[in-house]
Amino acid sequence: MKNQFVLLGLVLMMILVACSETEQPNVIPDWDQQKSTEMNKNLAIEEEIQIKLFLEQHKDWKMEKSGTGLQFFIYKEGEGSIGMVGQTADVEMKITLLDGSVVFVTKKDHVDEFVIDKSEIESGIHEGIKKMKKGGKAKLIIPSHLAHGLIGDFEKIPPLSILVVDIHLLNLN
């Protein structure tokens, strides 16, 4: 009788283990281009609201908006011609999130250098530089799609982050 209970217990355990190891069928999400487009539109609307609320706290910033969604305010005009594709831009900048968290600052006694539209920095910074002249200073508000997008930078910039850039264009070569 004791052996029968042990045998019954072993059979039940084998059944339970077998049931728990059965593969579940792969479920493919019902996703298409229309849903992606709708999601992107909703994200853009949410970012517009966040930027609008941010600018209500910075009423002295006289922002202009480009067709891509970059907002910029040149608060010190420079001299000469504006930045052009292929030129090297020497800049000092401070980049923050909307909540004021600093994610990048040019090191003291250092200049950040990049080739306009040919370097791997935020496309919103490239676009902003092309609106500035040597010696100019500007505030840029860069929507996530012109910054680090859906993934962030895996360090200080979270996914879907709007960036605020205070930039000084020191030189163009």
What attributes characterize this protein structure?
29% helix; 9 strands; alpha+beta; Chitinase A, domain 3; 7-stranded antiparallel beta sheet; two-stranded antiparallel ribbon; 173 residues
Separation, N- and C-terminal Cα atoms: 94 Å
Using the coordinates above, name the CATH class of the domain at 66-173.
Alpha Beta
Q: Could you estimate the helical fraction of the residues in percent?
A: 25-40%
The average pLDDT score comes to 89
CATH topology group of the domain at 66-173? Chitinase A, domain 3
Tell me, briefly, the overall form. Answer: elongated
Could you give a short account of the major beta sheet? 7 strands, antiparallel
Oligomer: single chain
Question: Number of helix segments?
Answer: 3
Q: What is the CA-atom radius of gyration, in angstroms?
A: 27 Å
Number of strands: 9
Category by helix and strand content: alpha+beta
Listing every helix as H and every strand as E from the N terminus to the C terminus, the arrangement reads HHEEEEEEHEEE
If you had to describe this structure to a student in words, what would you say it looks like?
Strands 1, 2, 4, 5, 6, 8 and 9 form a seven-stranded antiparallel beta sheet that branches. The protein has a two-stranded antiparallel sheet with strand order 3-7. The protein has a domain of 108 residues: Chitinase A, domain 3, CATH 3.10.50.40. The longest helix has 24 residues. The protein is 29% helix and 28% strand. It starts with a helix and ends with a strand. It is elongated, with a radius of gyration of 27 Å. It is of the alpha+beta class.
